[in-house]
Write a structure and sequence with these properties.
By secondary structure, this protein is an alpha/beta fold. The protein has twelve helices and seven strands. It has a single domain, classed as HAD superfamily/HAD-like (Rossmann fold, 3-Layer(aba) Sandwich). The termini are far apart.
Length: 306
């Protein structure tokens, strides 16, 4: 009986030993816990890397909610247009940008271009699929395709404004040498733009005014020299006012004196894909490797415990 049990024990041990996977270091794999199946491991290896733009671009390009927000803003602007035209003292330029009396000047509206009147989400999609992020050469190629489509409500609002004698100026941080392609894109999309002088791009020289980087102050002042600006429309705070301090506190401070103009003279549109809001939130982490940027973004979030 003792011999039979011993034989059974040896047989069982040999069988179990044959079922243990041994690692390259000679340790049983069971010590490390269960391992993923080969198919799952292969799927993980083939998965695209995380991309911070993915969800934002998905929302921007596919959601009905985005379209509703745009239509809501442009419809609201249209409902205020008659009052703006009738009130000769109505002016949408920041106080520091106006040095003359606007009451005798013809009316104008200032709009940004990208993600304000033209939809560039296809370029964001290309960035995601390439895995390279923003690339200036790829962006230029997209601009010169001149295929960006109008955003919801923008065309109807600006056409209605132009029909009432309002000149539309497209003050953009597209490079000035992209003016012809942008003009072509706007015209093909149906926007009211009679000639290239209505496009004021980055790098444009304004006599008597020194431009700093992407700031639009000089170009707004140029429009204000000859026009009473009824409204401004954009997707960035800097589309409305200069930002000497692009921090979270600095942006709020710049807008604070003009909150009464929002939804009346200033119309802000959503852009979760890119913008100076990101630099303001994460500071020097901007431009660093993705893990560094993600850590900075998580650090600035507020979970309401403080």
């Amino acid at each position: 009986m003792r011999l039979a049990l011993t034989a059974l024990s040896l047989t069982t041990a040999v069988f179990l030993a044959g079922c243990v996977t041994v690692t390259a270091h000679g340790d049983p794999a069971s010590v490390r816990g269960p391992q993923p199946a080969p198919a799952a491991a292969a799927a993980q290896a083939d998965a695209p890397p995380p991309n911070d733009m993915l969800n934002a671009t998905l929302w921007y390009q596919t959601s009905v909610e985005r379209d509703l927000v745009y239509r809501q803003a442009y419809r609201g602007a249209g409902e205020h247009l008659s009052a703006a035209l009738a009130d000769k003292a109505w002016d949408a330029l920041p106080k520091g940008d106006r040095s003359n009396d606007p009451r005798t000047l013809p009316p104008a509206i200032i709009v940004d271009v990208d993600e304000t009147v033209l939809d560039n989400a296809p370029d964001q999609v290309r960035q995601i699929r390439s895995g390279k992020g923003f690339d200036n050469d790829a962006w230029r190629a997209w601009v010169f395709e001149a295929q960006a489509r109008p955003l919801p409500g923008a065309l109807e609002f600006l056409q209605a404004a132009a029909a009432q004698g309002v000149t539309v100026f497209y003050v953009s941080n597209r490079d000035a040498d992209q003016a012809a392609a942008t003009f072509d894109n706007l015209r093909k999309a149906g926007f009211p733009i009679a000639d290239a002088s209505q496009f004021l791009g980055l790098g444009m020289q304004v006599p008597g005014c020194e431009s700093k980087g992407s700031d639009k102050t000089c170009r707004r002042r140029l429009v204000g020299q000859r026009y009473r600006v009824l409204m401004q429309v954009g997707d960035q705070v800097s589309d409305f006012i200069a930002l000497p301090d692009n921090t979270l506190a600095g942006r709020r401070a710049a807008m604070a004196p003009y909150l009464g103009w929002v939804g009346e003279r200033w119309w802000a549109l959503p852009n979760p894909m890119y913008g100076s809001w990101e630099s303001a939130a994460i500071g020097t982490a901007k431009g660093q490797p993705a893990p560094v940027q993600r850590a900075a973004k998580e650090a600035v979030l507020d979970d309401m415990r403080n």
